[in-house]
Amino acid sequence: MVRSGSVSDEIPGAGTVLPVDIEEELRTSFLEYSMSVIVARALPDVRDGLKPVHRRILYAMNESGLTPTRPYKKSAWTVGEVIGKYHPHGDQAVYDTMVRMAQDFAMRVPLIDGHGNFGSVDGDSAAAMRYTEARLHRAAMELLRDIEKETVDFGPNYDESLQEPLVLPSRFPHLLVNGSAGIAVGMATNIPPHNLGEVIDATTLLIDNPDATVDDLLAVLPGPDFPTGGIIMGRDGIRQAYETGRGSIKVRGKAHIEQTSTGKMRIIITEIPYGVQKSKLVTKIADLVREKKLPEISDLRDESDRKGMRVVIELKQSAVPQVVLNKLYKHTPLETGMGIIQLALVDGVPRTLTLKEMLHYYIEHQKEVITRRTRYDLRKAEERAHILEGYIIALDNIDEVIAIIKSSEDDAQAKQRLIERFGLSEAQTEAILEMRLRRLTGLERHKIEEELAELREKIAWYKKVLADVRLVLQIIKDELAEIKAKHADPRRTEITGTVEDLDVEDLIAEEDMVVTITKRGYVKRLPVATYRQQRRGGKGISGVNLKDGDFVEHLFISSTHDYVLFFSNKGKVYRMKVHELPLGSRHARGTAVVNLLPFEQDERIAAVITTREFRDDEYLLFATASGLVKKTAMQAYDRSRRDGIIAINLREGDELIAVRRVQKGQRVVMVSAEGKAIVFDESDVRPMGRGTTGVRGMSVKEGDQVLGMEIATEGSDLFVVTERGYGKRTPLAEYPVQKRGGMGVKTIQVTPKKGRLAGMKVVGRDHELMLISEEGVVIRVKVEDISRLGRSTQGVKVMNVGETDRVSAIARVRTQAKRKPVPEGQQSLLVEGPAAPAADDREAEAEELVGEEFDEEE
Question: CATH topology for 254-333?
């Protein structure tokens, strides 16, 4: 606080300094400033939807006669009129407002008819005001209509030398039609533009039914309608804004995909979101191409002309057009969000309004306008009828009137004598004295009588209107219908039923990947075409560049949009998308799994399942090294946590080795490293919860362990391969179906030369196998090239491996027509014939795709 007494003794000529509380002074001054911004600058009036500067420009142009039927006048002249008479602010601010009111890409219904360069949707600035010309647009005249009939209140201008309207009659709901945007102090408004015809329909609906709901209004006014077109994604944001006054919507530009005569694909953008500059959109796309975020684009050009917008994006041959389009929506202003804030001044106070409230206040304003106009017309009609009645009296007594006038000494005496003689009013007497002689003819008398009769009818109508509010509302409806017929045009913006939120996978092309996971935990994905076919017994090609002692443990095929469930040897499960896995080359080792998943020190991947959805009628079958099995619904794993979730409870010293999908009626085959195999019905394993331990599936001796588990079907073979590359296939029909928990029967003669079993697969005669060694050598062989032998035989050489190398993993592929991709080994096998059992549709499709992509090498 500043305190001071009299300082007149210290400062000559100084007065008394009063104590002032700085905090209170700042509070008061800021409040006055903020209210000035709110009321006199930034927020529109709910009645005419205009801010003061817009209102003053329109009124000044109307007063200057710059109507649609008059010639254009220099914008600088108009700006000078506005500044000098009503708006004492910067000339550029006024001109910028004029420019926007003339832009058909900024205003849904332009209010100013501009002549010259008024800017473009590219973001080009308008020419200087000394070069452009302007006049009022026809639609603006509807806002000013009847302003001369005392329909609105006027107040003094800034220097009190003139009167200016405090609001315009606004014969259509301008606040909704052209919207409004403004930032005040502590608040902002952002009302999108709407279609004139639809807004008028909604207003008429509310007049007819004041109890109309938002659903009723949405039926005729479905949402905003931007001058630049575009697509509004979803209706929920619109409904929320109309119900509460606040909401948010997503607006997309309109684009389609074309194919050229040469077969190349391209994207054509024909509409962009409201408020987006086309040049900035094109520049952003070009920047993304240079930054290699949109490498699929080969060329970009703007072919827009007077006929409309056309931005052409040429794509490379390998590009997926829809993915590129999704990337454009994600990374460029081709899709933008808009926050709707329906804030406007109601009786000078800012309020957030629902759609119904906005229309209600507009209707109330129109009721007042029509009422005041009718009163004005009634007064004028009565005044004119009063004069005409005086004319009739004078004409009926014309000789006497002339005599009185001739005998009077002056006007005052003549006026007084006429008033006394005929009971006329001063206005009637004045009119009679000024009446010309030509009005004494019979024709003129007839015209006076006709005009008086018409006026009496109008007076009766005006009085009837003023006595019945229903007639006032009907007049509002009729005049709105007239405006709609003259100025409305079709909707430009489409509205979709649902919001399409772009997931990251929408930006990823859906393609099939070979995913490899090594024993030491290196993960990568690469396209299936990377590998090549080799005949049985060949040396193969180098598939992975691995460290000494590492080898490929898991290999499967999956789409980039699938989920990958990583089951660890400790019984936990982690979830990722295929496209989230690191992309590597054929010779790359990959990324350590510890950099992708929060594994413990001795935790590793034991099994992998890929899926698109998690259904409650699909089950996963788990197998552990000690021979335990567990069956759990897939739906139980439809959740993810950064540190994983429990997939199966393991006993001390046990670990998870396999996870497979299983369906009702199928059979399970388990194979141990020492060459034993057991087959049992899946029904022997009852469904359990996610956190359970399971039951005994196969009994193994000390020193032995379960090597793998697959789903067996009738007519299929069991293929096994040893560490040294010896393999065989045996009909599963030779394996007796046992109850779970047994030790099984012999499936191959294990010898030190061949080594223990390294892998097993259930195959059909139309399958081929990919064998992977610890050193990363990959070879492909046909199942029919592998001998079909009995259960206890020793097998034949399938793959030549080096002295220090070992077979580490097997993948199965199919050699039929190509279909859609699905991961190998993750679905159940179904019977398709006596000798050629196939996987279910999804697995068969994956196997066929892989079979086609792997070309044969001699």
Answer: Gyrase A; domain 2 (3.30.1360)
